UniProtKB/TrEMBL annotation:
This is Cytidylate kinase. Residues 6-204 form the Cytidylate kinase domain. Gene3D superfamilies: P-loop containing nucleotide triphosphate hydrolases. It comes from Siccirubricoccus soli. InterPro entries: Cytidylate_kin (IPR003136), Cytidylate_kinase_dom (IPR011994), P-loop_NTPase (IPR027417). Keywords: ATP-binding, Cytoplasm, Kinase, Nucleotide-binding, Transferase. It comes from the Bacteria. It catalyses: dCMP + ATP = dCDP + ADP; CMP + ATP = CDP + ADP. GO terms for molecular function: kinase activity. Belongs to the cytidylate kinase family. Type 1 subfamily. Its main location: cytoplasm. HAMAP family: Cytidyl_kinase_type1. The lineage of its organism: Bacteria, Pseudomonadati, Pseudomonadota, Alphaproteobacteria, Acetobacterales.
Length: 209
């Protein structure tokens, strides 16, 4: 039997990354945070003092990505969030990164998390989860994450920026953020990490069965 591809989509700070990593470890599958591809692309554009909204500049950055770009320590935070959302709305960027993501998943199966895995990258995936939570809960999680990394941040500012990114990701013409029609929606607003993982694992095993 071919190893499965498990798609985990959802908005920022819903917990999808943590869930996807734990699912991959539990099931013995490779893991890919596809959001890092867009974050690294945005960061490359910023490094060159370019505009992340410029298609030619962003596409060139996407085509020049190397594995080392995904290991950078500056791929998180408000500036990186904004740049990632901007480059992700550009069709040429998404096209440049699509084959890379598909090749990763098709080699040995994988758990991939992102925003369009179940709708665009692997619409044929046997398991699709859409992990979400209220904006308030997600903003609080991201705020605590930033503080934990020593980044000064105001909760209200984090919430405003998160709402703006949600709107941009959901309204973009190419691969908008939305659940696939056959995705199982998992709301983690009232769940701690262990409860969310238990629920996700049960859903995955049920679908794979």
């Amino acid at each position: 039997m071919t190893a499965p591809v498990i798609a985990v989509d959802g908005p920022a700070a819903a917990g999808k990354g943590t869930l996807a990593r734990r699912l991959a470890a539990e099931l013995g599958l490779p893991y890919l945070d596809t959001g890092l591809l867009y974050r690294a692309t945005g960061r490359r554009v910023l490094d060159a003092a370019g505009d992340p909204r410029d298609p030619a500049t962003a596409a060139a950055a996407a085509r020049s990505l190397s594995p080392a770009d995904l290991q950078r320590s500056d791929l998180r935070g408000p500036e990186a969030d904004r740049a990632a959302s901007a480059v992700a709305a550009i069709p040429e960027v998404r096209a440049a990164l699509l084959d890379w993501q598909r090749a990763f998943g098709r080699t040995h199966g994988a758990v991939l998390d992102g925003r369009d895995i179940g709708t665009v990258v692997f619409p044929e995936a046997p398991v699709k989860l859409f992990v979400t939570a209220s904006t308030e809960a997600r903003a609080a999680r991201r705020w605590r994450e930033l503080l934990g990394r020593g980044v000064a941040a105001e909760l209200a500012t984090v919430a405003t920026e998160m709402a703006a990114r949600d709107a941009q990701d959901s309204a973009r013409a190419v691969a908008p953020l939305r659940p696939a029609e056959d995705a199982v929606v998992l709301d983690t607003t009232e769940l701690d990490a262990e409860a969310a993982f238990a629920a996700a694992l049960a859903l995955v095993r049920e679908r794979l069965r």
